Amino acid sequence: MGCTGSTEKKKRKNTTLTSSDDSFGLHNRDVDEIKVELSDATISTLLDETKFTQEEIIDWWHGFLADCPSGLLDKDKFIDVYQYKYPSGKAKGFCDHVFRTFNPDKRTRAIDFERFMCAINVTLKGTSDEKLNWAFTMYDINGDQRISKKEMLNVLEAMLDLLGKDKKGPNNPQKQVDRIFLRIDSNHDNYISKEEFFSGCRADENIRAILAPYY
C-alpha cells in the first residue's frame, strides 16, 4: 500500500500537508531530493476508492511528502499538523481520537499515504452516512459499537481543548453530554447505538454541530 521506493528524485517547493481547502498544514518549506515515489498502482486504487481526481491525489502526495519524507505519517507528526492549525489549543487528546479512526490497526503506529487519503476522503468528500459513521467511530473508543457517556465526554473535552475553549457555562462538556443523551438515547440504556447516533444527528442540527462537525 502507499508509496514504493524509487531512485527518481522529486523536487517541489513550498508544499505542505494540505489541500486546496487548507484542511491540514504545517510550516512551508522546500522539499528537495525526495526519493519516494507514488506508484501507479496506488493512484489507481485511490481513484477507485475515493472521490479525488488524479491531479488532487498527486497534489496531496507532494504535500504529504513535504511533512513525511519517509512516506509514513506517525501520531507525533499528526499532532504537529493539528497543533499548527490550532496554536492556542491543546491538540494531543483530540488527535489521539482522530488518529485512531485513521489507523484502526493497533499494531502499527503510522499510516501510509493510501490509508491517509481514504480517511481524508471521508471527512472531505464522503456521503452523509459515511461522515456520520466516521464520527461514530471516533466516539466509540473501545469499539463495542455503542457510545457511553464517559466516551462521549472524553472526546468532547479533547475537542474543547483543541479549540482552546472554556469548559464552563454552555460549553460545559458534562452538561452537553447529559443533554445529548436525554435527546437521542431513545431506549434509555445510557448508551448511544449507531442507529440512535445517526437519527439524532440527522434530526437535531445543534447536536449534529457538536458531534459531527464534518457532516
From TrEMBL:
GO terms for molecular function: calcium ion binding. CDD domains: EFh. Keywords: Calcium, Metal-binding, Repeat. Pfam families: EF-hand_7. The keyword Repeat applies. The keyword NADP does not apply. Residues 127-162, 172-207 form the EF-hand domain. This is EF-hand domain-containing protein.
